[in-house]
User: Which sequence fits this backbone?
């Protein structure tokens, strides 16, 4: 099937979360079903802007603000579902490619700015469970991304301290 992986992502059997979980998490099955793995293998058509031994970057099929804005995805070749499953080496390779593509995007499009974002898990809006980083060129007042839907809370340092400590003590587990 050549065509829109965005459409594919939207038409997977998503009505049942258990079906989707089985589809994407069954050992040895999820990689074949992963549309980004199929992009990497060339089984699904994409417009590539960069590739190296570890990562690729493609034009996202959904282009908000097109043609003033340009939307690119950068991802590891290897199937890794969410960012915290990346090894340090994979993370370094991915971020190096993000920076490299961002520089090229600035040279090519000379945007006023570039937004870089990355989503993990359905609740965060991740539609394809294969780690990917979004780059989107920005213009002043383009209204393309709204991080805060309303005025954010501003808790005190005292309120935030226990949460920060909870995270801090677990950083030592990282490898
Ligand atoms: Zn994949």
Assistant:
């Amino acid at each position: 099937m050549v065509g829109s992986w965005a459409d594919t992502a939207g038409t997977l059997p998503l009505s049942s979360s258990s079906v989707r979980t089985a589809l994407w998490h069954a050992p040895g099955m999820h990689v074949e079903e992963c549309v980004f793995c199929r992009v990497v293998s060339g089984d699904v058509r994409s417009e590539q802007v960069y590739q190296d031994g570890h990562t690729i970057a493609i034009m996202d099929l959904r282009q908000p603000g097109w043609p003033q804005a340009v939307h690119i995805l950068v991802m590891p070749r290897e199937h890794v579902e969410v960012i915290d499953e990346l090894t340090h080496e994979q993370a370094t390779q991915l971020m190096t490619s993000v920076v490299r593509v961002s520089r090229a995007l600035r040279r090519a499009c000379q945007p006023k700015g570039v937004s870089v974002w990355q989503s993990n898990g359905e609740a965060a809006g991740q539609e394809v469970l294969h780690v990917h980083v979004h780059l989107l060129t920005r213009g002043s007042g383009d209204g393309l991304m709204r991080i805060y839907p309303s005025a954010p809370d501003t808790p005190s340092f005292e309120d935030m301290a226990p949460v920060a400590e909870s995270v801090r003590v677990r950083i030592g587990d990282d490898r």
The chain has one domain: 3-147.
